[in-house]
Description:
The chain is α/β, with parallel strands linked by helices. It folds into two domains: about 20-155, Rossmann fold (3-Layer(aba) Sandwich), CATH 3.40.50.1220; about 185-365, Rossmann fold, CATH 3.40.50.970. It has 15 helices and ten strands. It has helices at about 5-10, 20-35, 50-60, 95-105, 130, 145-155, 185-195, 210-215, 240-255, 265-270, 275-285, 315-325, 335-345, 365-380, 385-395; strands at about 35-40, 65-70, 85, 105-110, 135-140, 200-205, 260-265, 285-295, 325-330, 350-355. The strands form two sheets. The protein has a five-stranded parallel beta sheet with strand order 3-2-1-4-5, covered by helices on one side. Strands 6-7-8-10-9 form a five-stranded parallel beta sheet, with helices on both faces. The site of thiamine diphosphate has 19 residues, from helix 8 and helix 10.
Amino acid sequence: MILPRSKDELLNLPVFLSGAxxxxxTIATKLQGAKAPLMYIGEQVKLNNALKNKILDFCHxxxxxxxxxxxxxxxxxxxxxxxxxxxxxxFSSAKLRDYIEHNIDYVLDVGTSIFAQDTASAFxxxxxxxxxxxxxxxxxxxxxxxxxxxxxxxxxxSLDIPRHTFIAQNFATNRPNENDKIDFHNLSSVxxxxxxxxxxxxxxxxxxxxxxxxxxGLRVRANALGRAWLSNPWYAAMGTSLPYARVVAxxxxxxxxxxxxxxxxxxxxxxxxxxxxIHFQKQQLPLIIIYMRNNIFHLGKSGDGxxxxxxxxxxxxxxxxxxxxxxxxxxxxxxxxxxxFNAAIEANQGIYLIEIPCHTAEQFQCREIKLLNLYINAxxxxxxxxxxxxxxxxx
Length: 395
Ligand SMILES: Cc1ncc(C[n+]2csc(CCOP(=O)(O)OP(=O)(O)O)c2C)c(N)n1
């Protein structure tokens, strides 16, 4: 086997893409005829900063709003005017759905998965408007480092494409009342308000479990690390959020970026990666842990068996963080959470664990999980759920 002599040789392979002009011209013609175009960005862009920047430049040059798939969440500043957040059919917020499903007339779909994966396609509920939308151009990279997509955007940048009119949308969520119970149903709204009013970027590490689904409601800021939301997909093994958080915290420390590492986790997923905590203590890495405590493995639970009891009401997680030189608090209300969270953000020192006692009642679940459960119940033939789901989809 002949290996390249250097890394540069690998990166500079010739681009055999004779059709770039033809594709770019088609896109330009479509954009010229469109009144409300949209760029839909997928996971191929996740590890390619150059491509991400070219897409951003293109959108800014022509005033084209963009939205990511769920798998590409965390790449862009979701508080900027052109970034509409991440879209996933019926699982998206009502305001985002309304804009996308009633306004757009052309979609440029860039770097989405070759296979329609269920988490990114609204769990195959047939409610993913973009997936079914016909006036769409789909471009997927087939070369190393997406060099074909990079050259396509170079050609696009040289073409005469109009600047579109786009009126900034307001996707802000209401701030829950300070006296409300804090739980999965309002966690993302509370964090969004806090992030909106804070110039420091919160880098979120949601663990697989209810936390993963609740975190799709988060609005994230861009930062120099390139990602503000990192997680394994929901099928993947639990147990990576703390190692991911460690790498993020190490990078923040070495680059002196004014951002914060924020882990959101269920108790089950957290307990079996505790071995990582010692490194935060040894390296004096700041970390905020939002510990959603329900003493069970809740996501995917299908019975009341002992097997789901991952913790015990006697277990004192506050003493555990103390052992690692950290601090913690228990928060029952939105007001308590805001106070404790702000103090931890300011202090930016060591481990700070915010324990939120969580209820399993439906009213305290996040919107995404409620919808998923409704859909599963409808598919299982529950008559009430079938009716509710049909109503929801019609709307
Ligand atoms: C290693 C591993 N075991 C099991 C699962 C299946 N699984 C996905 S979510 C989940 C429950 C998560 O419980 P917890 O961390 O307590 O969070 P909760 O859903 O209760 O908020 C389980 C068991 C998995 N993804 N990975």
